[in-house]
Amino acid sequence: MEEARLIYSGVAHNLPNEPGRRLVVDVGGGSTELIIGERFEPLELESLQMGCVSLSQRFFGDGRLSPKRIERARLAARLELEPIQAAFLRRGWERAVGSSGTVRAIADSIRALDPAAASVTPAGVELLLRRLGEAGHLRALELDAVTDERRPVFPGGVVILAEIIDALGIQQLRFAEGALRDGLLYDMVGRMTRSDARERTVGSMQRRYHVDLEQAGRVEATALQFLSQVRSPWGLEDPLAELSVTWAARLHEIGLDVAHNGYHRHGAYLLENADMPGFSREEQQLMARLVGAHRRKLALERLEDLIPPWDRLAIFLIVLLRLAVLLHRGRSAEALPNIELTPRGRTLELRFPSRWLGEHPLTVADLQLEIGYLRPEGMRLRVFSGSRTG
Questions:
Q1: What are the pLDDT digits (tens) for 287-305?
Q2: Which of 159, 188, 280, 332 has the most CB atoms less than 10 A away?
């Protein structure tokens, strides 16, 4: 799904900014992406586990071509398309475009066979399929638009596009510049210009899972304030540290929409397995670990699966998030006092204003439990009351 989103972004930025919906088709080597969108916003995304390489190897791996083999390949492609056909037809579109080298080679080959062809049409694809069947073998296929490198995977690409055109009733498909690499570049630019797809995804998940936005905002503000005090001593200068704490704070309660019991584990599962546009797998995994460990007994055995340095540093982010959640467990809008954090290796000292802890015995009880939760994981929490000179 993330690949589909990026492909659509790359194509959309290379097309006129016209009103109405467009269908984008990208036939890749191992997968095929279908996206319906409007201007720069994808509305329907699908990634099918069939591509020109996999289908060609399955049905034309020995290089032989025949109408019977082509028909068997078309049936396989049809089966992959059937589950998404109704949803795409229901959504509808005004224009269809194709991207990637496979679609370009098909469009150029059709134009070579029929110079009057201005786009890929059902008749043009059928003409190309007949030419493939008549060739008998890939060695005998004479199409200038098909390079020697692309020749072994070309039949699978033609079959896939033919079945897409047939299943979705496409009458005209034009080639469009731009694809995955362009989408990645535009995504990176967006992250630097306040148009970060990840922010939109987090907001969407907050709405979908009915997050208490005020509570999430309180936890976020406190966690970030804590991070600002320990960033350098704990080696958390990487921007992903702040981003991960921010996202985890905003989404730490999404598991409540599944069940109250063990909701932190439900939240972690959702974050690790959901389609989250804009997020890399590594970012999702880090965020999932933070949310999954933000309360109760710590389960840190999976931190070693994170990419370095987060396999080592994630524990520090978890501690900050846990403390922010603990201090806002009462869900009160009352502001917290100034709390000083002093990290000393894997020891974290918390210093509260004089008398504040005495006025909040439930917080003291929670902090005592937290000391016990952190100790087995090699983290030591020390809590003080009053200023250093008091």
A1: 999 999 999 888 776 788 8
A2: 159
Which of 10, 52, 45 lies closest to 31 in space, CA to CA?
Answer: 52
Domain with CATH 3.30.420.150 in the chain: 2-187
Check: CB of residue 150 under 8 Å from CB of residue 101.
Answer: yes
- Give the domain 196-332 fold: Hypothetical protein af1432 (1.10.3210)
Sign of torsion over alpha carbons 150, 156, 157, 159: positive
d(Cα 35, Cα 48) in Å, to the nearest integer? 11
207-214, long-range: CB within 8 Å, 24+ apart, which pairs? 209/251, 209/253, 209/254, 209/256, 209/257, 209/270, 210/256, 210/257, 211/250, 211/251, 211/253, 211/254, 212/253, 212/331, 214/333
Report strand pairing: 173-175 vs 32-38: unpaired
Beta bridge partners of residue 22, listed in sequence order: 37, 95
Rounded-to-integer distance, Cα 139 and Cα 142, Å: 8
Give helix 281-292 / helix 310-327 axis angle, nearest 10°: 40
Q: What angle do CA 346, 318, 202 make, to 5 degrees?
A: 155
Q: What is the pLDDT of residues 68-108, one digit of tens each?
A: 999 999 999 999 999 999 999 999 999 998 888 899 999 99
pLDDT above 60 (res 207) = yes
Confidence band for 179, pLDDT divided at 50, 70 and 90 = low
Q: Are 2 and 275 in contact, with CB atoms under 8 Å apart? A: yes
State pTM to two decimals: 0.64
Contacts of 41 (CB under 8 A, 6+ apart): none
Statement: 2-187 belongs to CATH 3.30.70.20: no
Q: Are 69 and 62 in contact (CB under 8 A)?
A: no
Q: What would the mean pLDDT of 352-369 be, rounded to a whole number?
A: 94
